[in-house]
């Protein structure tokens, strides 16, 4: 991982925003994107202390898609997990950092709103979901506390050289596109989306060479069965 982008979606509290800006400075975050914030940047600067200058470097966008442009691996966070819901099958902060270490370019950490976190549509835009283990008495962490834990783990591995490189975003997207074209209308739409989410999550954790071979296989199958004309892929 060469670059770390912090994406903060719908931040509501100026205190939390200030704390997150301070954490970004503490843990060498390279880019900060705010998605449709409602918190006051002016008020946040009081809590950011020496990191108040980060206010001027913020990039504000109106969608998570724009915030994730140019990102090779995106890690969303949530306090909710479920083995039965493909969107909510989590990894730990430690595992997230180990995977981020193998990314050659840009990794994004995505934090949600204080009130409701990230929506299902927003979770679908991310490659991985990370949940911080905590007591069953109260699983929800404050967004700045969750940010501190995640940024600390990512900081530890950011400058450490990696011997293995994960699949790049283009390869992951192509595999998903070929799979979609291949199965066509074999599944109900909701079931198909769940399967493709599971596929994307699995390939996002795969070593680059392995993913390239998977892409070669699925593209050859698609070519054999004449589904390339159904391929929908955008860079």
Please mark out the parts with pLDDT under 50 across 5 or more consecutive residues, or reply none. none
Strand content: 5-15%
Euclidean distance between termini CA atoms: 21 Å
Question: What kind of oligomer do you see?
Answer: single chain
DSSP, total strands: 6
Task: Tell me about this structure.
The longest helix has 17 residues, at 208-224. The protein is α/β, with parallel strands linked by helices and 235 residues long. The protein is globular. It has helices at residues 14-26, 41-48, 64-67, 93-101, 120-124, 143-158, 169-183, 189-204, 208-224; strands at residues 3-9, 31-35, 59-61, 73-77, 106-111, 128-130. α1 packs parallel to α6 (143-158) and α7 packs antiparallel against α8 (189-204).
